[in-house]
Amino acid sequence: MNNVMLDNLPTEWNGYKVNTDFRIGMQIYILQYDKEMNEYEKTTSILYLMFSDEYGELRDHPQYNELNECISWYLNGWYHDNTGSSKNTKRFIDYDVDQWRIYADFLQIYGIDLSVADMHWWKFNGLIWNMPRRLSSLMEVIEIRQKKIEKNMSSKEKDAIRNAQNKYALEQPEKEYTSEEKEKIDDYDRMMEEIRKQKETEQEALKQFKK
Fold this sequence. Notes:
Blueprint: E1 12-13, E2 16-17, H1 22-32, H2 39-51, H3 64-76, H4 99-110, H5 121-128, H6 137-146, H7 155-167, H8 179-183, H9 188-210
Antiparallel strand pairs: 1-2
Helix pairs in contact: 1-2, 1-5
């Protein structure tokens, strides 16, 4: 277990260099709910986000089951509490919809300007999920999204909660995916071959343009 107070936050997994900036993790989560992209496009994007070098080329990276493990480690390795047995997959945060709440909270609570910050994804998560609830506009909105309407509430209270939840509602996934389905990278070899062919086509087109 990595201890942020004793150890440097990791930038490699089993010898593979991983891009760990917090913006990478945010983009991966945003990709999951992008309805305009198919699974192949999402997988390709995740690979380039996590493993591309400064020139945009893919570095050596894990494959097949190891790749799934690496992605899971990257996204969730910061979390050390027990996950519990809840099967609730409802979304309570959206890095696009909640962007200004997140930005303002970090600036006001921590004095961190996220538009220019250089921060590890794990550090970002440790800070965002430990913000003082009553000082954080994001935590207050999440609390509204999570709030349950109880039978003993008055009609006025129920209406107030419903109105607030409608205001801050997030679009929910149409299908509930298992962790295995989320981590699975389908047709990996075919995908890499397609990427290689696309690169060759782009290079050939560039040569013709220069002529």
